[in-house]
Specification:
Length: about 270
């Protein structure tokens, strides 16, 4: 009798039967994407902002800060690009949604993860560094807080952030283009160099944020909100406009296999007017 009962239980709860508590694969992937984006953003903000610290005891330079941000982006994308895409930036996420890379539900989840990640990343920086390294005489607004140069107006700041974010999002759109599918092995390096170049170009004028949540983390922890709206309006508008322009004017519909002679001939023909 006990053997029959045991067999009936095995047939009811056999290995082929679904387990109710087991997370479905689609849900598991969604959770991994959310936490991947959160951890990647926290990692990026922590490493990059630590590289911006400047006090009489901790020297720094504009070149070093720009290089640090680019390398921090490289690390985050290399670690989590295959998990969530490593957007790390609401402007890039907005562009990805408009471009058609992700749906609106995932886009909202990414925005939440990025904001939380930025707060956590900068919070770790506050926890491990001395107080005068975060906010002091040399950085009254706070370490890594994005502020406008004295000669730059808020309107000029918006346009600068808009233009440099357009460059960044254009790179993202080109990566999402099906024609570049075969050239994904160096995405982290490409984004890292792009960010470093843009920070070296515009960092002295606006801080070259290009990323609302990158500005949000330091602003919240230091309670520094001067012209903070500039770092939301400029990048977000740039993300939307650039994505629409690329999708309408430049996006391809198929992957090009360069090993095929027809593809090579077609590319040569397209280049010749």
């Amino acid at each position: 009798m006990s053997q029959q009962k045991q067999k009936s239980q095995e047939s009811k709860f056999g290995t082929n039967s679904p387990v109710r508590w087991r997370v479905q694969e689609s849900h598991r992937v969604a959770i991994a994407c959310f936490f991947g984006e959160l951890v990647a953003t926290a990692m990026f903000v922590f490493v990059a902002c630590m590289g911006c610290v400047q006090t009489p005891f901790f020297g720094n330079s504009h070149f070093r800060s720009g290089l640090t941000f680019g390398l921090a982006i490289l690390i985050a994308i290399q670690c989590f690009g295959s998990v969530s895409g490593a957007h790390l930036n609401p402007a890039v996420t907005l562009a990805a949604w408009i471009y058609g890379v992700i749906g609106w539900i995932k886009a909202i989840a990414y925005l939440i993860a990025q904001a939380a990640g930025a707060l956590i990343g900068y919070g770790l920086l506050v926890a491990v560094l001395p107080e005068d390294a975060i906010k002091g005489v040399d950085n009254p607004a706070g370490a890594c807080v994005t502020v406008l140069a004295p000669e730059i107006s808020e309107l000029q700041g918006v346009f600068i952030e808009f233009l440099i974010t357009c460059c960044l999002v254009m790179v993202a759109c080109s990566v999402w283009d099906p024609r570049n599918k075969r050239f994904q092995d160096s995405v982290a390096v490409k984004f890292g160099l792009t960010v470093s170049c843009l920070i070296l170009t515009a960092g002295l004028f606006t801080g070259a944020s290009m990323n609302p949540t990158r500005s949000l983390g330091p602003a919240v922890w230091n309670n520094s909100w001067a012209a903070h709206w500039v770092y939301w309006v400029g990048p977000l508008v740039a993300g939307a406009v650039t994505s629409v322009v690329y999708r309408v004017c430049f996006k391809g519909n198929e992957e090009i296999d360069l090993t095929i002679s027809n593809a090579q001939m077609r590319m040569i023909g397209d280049a010749v007017p």
